[in-house]
Amino acid sequence: MSKPLPNSIYARDVEYLLHAATNARKHEETGPIVIDRGEGIHVFDDQGNKYIEAMAGLWSVAVGFGEKRLADAAYQQMLKLPYYHSFSSKSNEPAILLAERLVNMSPDKLSKVFFTNSGSEANDTVVKMVWYFNNARGKPNKKTFLARVNGYHGITMASASLTGLPVNHRDFDLPILPVKHLTCPHFWRFGLPGETEAEFTDRLAAELEQTILDAGPDTIAAFIGEPLMGAGGVLPPPAGYWTKVQEICRKYDILIVADEVINGFGRLGTMFACEYYGIEPDMLVVSKQITSSYQPLAAILFSDEIFQGIADNTAKIGTFGHGFTAGAHPVATAVGLENLDIIEERGLVAHAAEMGEILQRELRSRFTDHPLVGEVRGVGLIGAVELSADKATKQRFDPPGKAGAYLFARGHEHGVIIRAIGDQIAFCPPLIITEPEIMDMLDRFALALDETWAFVR
Ligand code: PLP
């Protein structure tokens, strides 16, 4: 990309927009890629270039781009009731129906829903709900959250505090709440020399229990985790990890919060990743694929026990003093309902399981032995290839991200939008992807990978 021409749409972008997760000085030199439209698994930029969206946007667009049924659902709802709120006992039908549907499709223990507009707001809300609940049940010291290094829970003040990525803390004066970040459950990177996967799981479980005992169990409120970590690099946990985490949390009356903002609605080939890993959460956070991100929406599902505690407190102090202007939005929830209809009618969860097997098989068979690749990993339709400067020693690149950034750019040249998380390359295509499209995506990636090898070797 070259410096944008004066007055072009690119120059105006540079003049007026601050971009998320972007080096603003570099952006002044390169300008943006303006995405103009999308269809199926593809997007097109305003120059007419076609790309496979191997990340479904930001792990989002389950049903693909250009799904007219979602546009119609939004349009019809806008004509009927474009907006209403959920404060002071007001409600609207799509929000009620979506809440009912989410409860019926989710793990048994979850019986109520609170809607927000984003995953970050949802996780901030989780923190507030847990604190409110613990105050209500006479456990006011139970406030600390347990999270993990490389976990991602969002970027608002509380959710970014839970996030375990330095880039989301640095120079933002975060974390601001009591949180302890435990070892990242990624065996390949964090396993010790000679340690087996089972020993790694045991070590992480021991660390969890010791952390609780050191702080005092009456100070630890909740454990929050993505069942399979996404934005930290697509990191499936070691075998047995979630069983042990749950045993320990239950022993010390610590709530379990499953953040399925990426995992939820079929990504791992099951409706929720909690099913895949046998997790019974007290709270479940979902977003993104709930509307295929055609509308901003997130939801917290939570147990009756938590609801009863909160409800009693509202009776005592007068209200639940929390909520968003656009929470339980009728257009977003109507789109969510239609999106879930599409996922069900087209059997997209089973399809994701089937396509996921192909994706995982092909990623491993084609790239495990590549000289630039340290590890290939993933479950279902989410996967990653981690680049390493030295395959044998798992050495990182200097500077970190050098190879990933190059590969990311080469990918664009070959018509595939992947995500480079440092030197970890993520794949998370729309659930509708077909076998030939997976092959096409990986062929393009393979070209970019070989060019990156030529660049760094
Ligand atoms: N939680 C997880 C697991 C996520 O992956 C994300 C976003 O990627 C969030 C929370 C934050 O969601 P949002 O970007 O909608 O605020």
UniProtKB/TrEMBL annotation:
What are the required cofactors? pyridoxal 5'-phosphate
In Pfam terms, one family for this protein is Aminotran_3
Q: Name one GO molecular function term.
A: adenosylmethionine-8-amino-7-oxononanoate transaminase activity
SUPFAM superfamilies reported in the protein's UniProt record? PLP-dependent transferases (SSF53383)
Q: Please give the biological process terms from Gene Ontology that the record holds.
A: biotin biosynthetic process; gamma-aminobutyric acid metabolic process
Alphabetized, the UniProt keywords read:
Aminotransferase, Pyridoxal phosphate, Transferase
Q: Quote the InterPro entries the UniProt record gives.
A: Aminotrans_3, Aminotrans_3_PPA_site, PyrdxlP-dep_Trfase, PyrdxlP-dep_Trfase_major, PyrdxlP-dep_Trfase_small
What the record says about family reads: Belongs to the class-III pyridoxal-phosphate-dependent aminotransferase family.
Q: Which NCBIfam families match?
A: PRK06105.1, PRK07480.1
Identification of the protein by name: Aspartate aminotransferase family protein
